[in-house]
Design brief:
alpha+beta; Ribosomal Protein S5, domain 2; Alpha-Beta Plaits; 2 domains; 8-stranded mixed sheet; 4-stranded antiparallel sheet
C-alpha cells in the first residue's frame, strides 16, 4: 500500500502580513490569494520492521529511527518530525512504522508558502492513511498549530488554508484564531486571462522570512504608526483587488498591485532591496503595470501584471537579472489525497 497526497502552493496577491499575529488579533486581517500548479507532495508506505524513515527528496535529507512516540526536533526535517509527534499525541497513541517521502516544487524561502503547504500535504497523507476525522478547517488549523505553536516557526495563517482549500480565496482573520475562507467564483476565461497576464519570476535568491516577520511584529508591538498604517493599507488592497477581479477589471488589478507593493515595502525593513527594486523597475519599463514579491519579502518569487501581450517584452527585459520565468496555471482544488 502507498498513501499519497499533494497540496498546491499559492500566490499572495494582497494583504499578506495582516494574517500574522498580533495584527489580526487587534485589527482583523484580510488576505487575497490563489493557488497555482506547483505542489508539495507526500507519500507514506507502511513498514513492518518497527522503523521510521523520513526522506526529503528536494532537500536531500534523510532521517531514520526506531518507532517511538516522540521524535526530538533537532534542525533536520523538523516539520516532518513535528507532524508525526502531533499525530501520535492527538490521534493514535500507538507507535507507527512507515517511510515518509516528500518533495516540493519550489525551494524553501520561495515566498509561495512552500513550508506550510508541505505541512498540509504531510497531514493529508497521515489523515488518508489513518482515516483521521479532519475537515478542511481542521486540517488547516492543525497545520498552523504544528508549524507556528508546536515548532515555533514564525509566520501567518494564510498558507495552510490556501493549501487545504485551493482556488482563489479572500480570507479573513480575527482574534481567538478565527479564520473565514471566502472562495471567489470567477469565470474560467477571466481566470485564464489573469494567469496569462501574471508573469511569475524566480529571482534566484531565497530568504529567511522569520527575520522580516519578527520586524513586522515588533513594529506592531511598539506601535510604529508608519508600519501599522502600511498594514492597514495592505489589507485595503486585498479588498480592492478582490473587487477588481470579480468585476473582470483585470488591468485595474495590475495598477492596484503597484500600489500594494509600495505599501508592503513600508511594513518592515528588508522586504525589498536595490536588487529587487531594479527588477521591479525593469519590469514596469518593459510594460508591466505592477507586481510584488510573493510572501513576506526579501527574496524568492516576484510576479508582475503584464497587460495584453507585454509579458514577452517583460520576459526579455528580466533576462539580464539571471532569474527564471516560471510557467503556471491557477488551480481550483486544494489538498488531494489517495491510496494505491
Amino acid at each position: 500500500m502507498i498513501v499519497r497526497s499533494k497540496a498546491p502552493l499559492r500566490l499572495g496577491l494582497a494583504g499578506g502580513g495582516t494574517d500574522v499575529s498580533p495584527y489580526p488579533d487587534r485589527f482583523g486581517g484580510a488576505v487575497l490569494n490563489a493557488t497555482i500548479s506547483m505542489y508539495a507532495y507526500a507519500s507514506i508506505i507502511p513498514r513492518n520492521d518497527g522503523k521510521i524513515v523520513i526522506h526529503s527528496v528536494d532537500r536531500q535529507e534523510l532521517f531514520e529511527s526506531d518507532s517511538v512516540g516522540f521524535i526530538t526536533p533537532d534542525g533536520v526535517l523538523d516539520l516532518h518530525k513535528g507532524i508525526y509527534n502531533r499525530i501520535y499525541r492527538d490521534f493514535t497513541r500507538e507507535k507507527m512504522a512507515f517511510e515518509l517521502t516528500t518533495y516540493v516544487d519550489a525551494p524553501p524561502g520561495s515566498g509561495l508558502g512552500s513550508s506550510s503547504t508541505l505541512v498540509t500535504a504531510i497531514i493529508g497523507a497521515f489523515s488518508e492513511w489513518l482515516k483521521l476525522p479532519l475537515g478542511d478547517y481542521d486540517t488547516a488549523n492543525l497545520a498552523y498549530e504544528i508549524e507556528r505553536l508546536d515548532l515555533g516557526f514564525a509566520g501567518g495563517k494564510q498558507d495552510q488554508y490556501a493549501a487545504t482549500f485551493g482556488g482563489v480565496n479572500f480570507m479573513e482573520f480575527y482574534e481567538a484564531n478565527k479564520v473565514i475562507v471566502n472562495p471567489l467564483r470567477i469565470r474560467t476565461e477571466i481566470l485564464n486571462e489573469l494567469s496569462h497576464n501574471l508573469l511569475l519570476y524566480y529571482t534566484g535568491s531565497s530568504r529567511l522570512s522569520s527575520t522580516i516577520i519578527h520586524t513586522q511584529q515588533e513594529s506592531l508591538k511598539n506601535n510604529r504608526m508608519d508600519s501599522v498604517e502600511a498594514m492597514h493599507k495592505t489589507k485595503e488592497m486585498a479588498v480592492l483587488i478582490k473587487e477588481a477581479i470579480l468585476k473582470s477589471e483585470l488591468d485595474q488589478v495590475g495598477l492596484l498591485l503597484d500600489d500594494a507593493w509600495q505599501f508592503k515595502k513600508r511594513m518592515a525593513e528588508g522586504i525589498s532591496n536595490p536588487f529587487f527594486d531594479a527588477i521591479y523597475d525593469s519590469a514596469k519599463k518593459a510594460g508591466a503595470l505592477g507586481g510584488k514579491i510573493s510572501g513576506a519579502g526579501g527574496g524568492g518569487y516576484m510576479f508582475f501584471y503584464c497587460p495584453e501581450n507585454s509579458r514577452f517584452g517583460v520576459t526579455e527585459a528580466l533576462k539580464k537579472f539571471k532569474g527564471v520565468v516560471t510557467p503556471f496555471q491557477f488551480t481550483k482544488t486544494g489538498l488531494n489525497t489517495w491510496t494505491i
